[in-house]
UniProtKB/TrEMBL annotation:
Protein name per Swiss-Prot or TrEMBL: Alpha/beta hydrolase
Gene3D superfamilies: alpha/beta hydrolase (3.40.50.1820)
Hydrolase as UniProt keyword: yes
GO molecular function: arylformamidase activity
Keyword NADP: no
Length: 275
């Protein structure tokens, strides 16, 4: 297509058809003390009557834990819903208003809300998959793998990490101690024990849900290193896991999903069908 802007508009028009969006649903049982606003989520469900008890995909966006908003990812929810996947796009409180633990707690609450309510949107809570890009990958992994957040790993059918950041913050912050830049000091503190608690790599176990990993071959070196370390840690429990490497930088790892014909959709749906 010669005009990329026209192509994007056409994609958005096409994928909007046949999809019902339920917007700004508050999911917290109680507002966290240091949250300025109550976060909410959007649900995208297929309209066609043939779609009932569909698999569910819960998505958490990235943004370095200090930026981003769920409204930017309507294309993601619509594209998956058009393909018969009920999709939940989660918003959460960002740094400096929230630290990593508040964010993770909110994501865990969004997961619990989905498990309890998604049948109202044609979804099957027993077929719940989690996915996140960048910081979002960190948050879904930590919320699921650290029992402190109250998610039963067996209730999650699978986790799809898309160029996930923060999988080993302990290792990263030992090399680059947090400062006020990017609000990292308020996000992670200056305590190495906190960094360890914030790192999903320390919670891998035989109970970890089946994982699918995308990693950009041109991504940030810190993400490349952390994903390699995470893969090494989880290999004893999931020996067949191999990351899918794509010839992309970090942001295009997410923006590729604007195109509803992108091969990632069928790869992810295949993973969901197999688990």
């Amino acid at each position: 297509m010669r005009n990329p802007i026209l192509g994007i508009i056409l994609c958005l028009i096409i994928t909007s058809c046949g999809v019902r969006k339920s917007a700004d649903i508050e999911y917290l049982q109680k507002v966290q003390a240091n949250s300025e606003n109550t976060p909410s989520l959007n649900v995208f469900s297929p309209k066609k009557s043939k779609y009932q008890n569909t698999p569910v995909l819960l998505f958490v966006h990235g943004g370095n834990w200090n930026s981003g908003k769920k409204e930017l990812y309507d294309f993601y929810g619509k594209n998956f819903a058009k393909k018969g996947i009920t999709t939940v796009v989660v918003g959460y409180t960002l740094s400096p208003e929230a630290d990593y633990k508040v964010m993770t707690t909110q994501v865990a609450e969004a997961i619990k809300w989905t498990q309890e309510n998604i049948t109202e949107y044609k979804g099957d809570p027993k077929k719940l998959f989690l996915t996140g890009h960048s910081a979002g990958g960190h948050l879904i992994a930590l919320a699921t793998m650290n029992e402190e957040y109250g998610i039963e790993p067996s209730s999650i059918s699978g986790i799809i990490l898309n160029d996930a950041a923060g999988l080993d913050m302990h290792h990263y912050l030992q090399q680059y101690p947090p400062t006020t830049t990017d609000n990292y000091l308020s996000t992670w503190s200056d305590d190495p024990e906190v960094w360890k608690k914030a790192s999903p790599i320390f919670y891998v176990s035989e109970n970890t849900p089946e994982i699918m990993m995308y990693v950009g071959e041109k991504t940030y070196s810190s993400i490349e290193v952390a994903n390699k370390r995470f893969l090494e840690a989880i290999k004893p429990f999931q020996p067949d896991l191999e990351p899918i490497l794509l010839d992309k930088k970090h942001i295009p790892m997410m923006t590729q999903f604007i195109w509803p014909w992108n091969n990632r959709y069928q790869e992810m749906i295949r993973f969901m069908s197999d688990n």
